[in-house]
Sequence to fold (136 residues):
Amino acid sequence: MSASPDRRTVLRGAALAGAVCFGAAACASGEQSSNRPSSDAPVELGPAAEVPVGGAKLYGAQRLLVSQPTKGAFKCFSIVCTHMGAILNKIEKGQGVCPLHGSRFEATTGKVAQGPATRPLEEVPVKVKNGTLVAG
Ligand code: FES
Fold:
């Protein structure tokens, strides 16, 4: 068997979310990038060292969030809000924040910290290859 359906589903969903805006706030950044995952192919995000230990970083163009709860352990999630599909636009106090209705998600687990969203962010596999984060 090849990649799990979850991985394909998440990356495909992330790519689709980039093409559709669900509200003014979601479209405010106006980001468009050819570096966004459009299939289940792995995507390079950049140097792993850019993600602080105990912190997280948003990769808006790729529609992903990466956190590093402990040194060398990375977690990656889609930043497509599970409420109505807006794109999380910042990390505050260890939580990804949705600008549309204020849902917040734990950057280390993807779990909902504050609604109206009720479902966690979709997790995306991530690894470090030669010092570079590779998602998918
Ligand atoms: S779309 Fe994110 S909180 Fe509603």
Remarks:
- The longest strand covers residues 64-70.
- The domain at 5-27+43-135 is CATH 2.102.10.10 (Rieske Iron-sulfur Protein).
- The helical segments are 5-19, 24-27.
- The radius of gyration is 14 Å.
